Amino acid sequence: MTGGEGGGPERYGGPLPIAVLASGQGTNLQALLDTVHGREARIVAVASDRPAAPALRRAGDAGVPTATFVRADFPDRAARDEAMAGWLTDRGARAVVLAGYMALLTPGFLARFPAGVLNVHPSLLPAFPGLRAVEQAVEHGVKVFGVTVHFVDEGVDTGPIVAQRAVELPDATDPAAVLAALRPLEHSLLPDAVRRLAAGALRPPRR
Amino acid sequence: MTGGEGGGPERYGGPLPIAVLASGQGTNLQALLDTVHGREARIVAVASDRPAAPALRRAGDAGVPTATFVRADFPDRAARDEAMAGWLTDRGARAVVLAGYMALLTPGFLARFPAGVLNVHPSLLPAFPGLRAVEQAVEHGVKVFGVTVHFVDEGVDTGPIVAQRAVELPDATDPAAVLAALRPLEHSLLPDAVRRLAAGALRPPRR
Question: What number is the ipTM of this complex?
Answer without folding.
Answer: 0.86
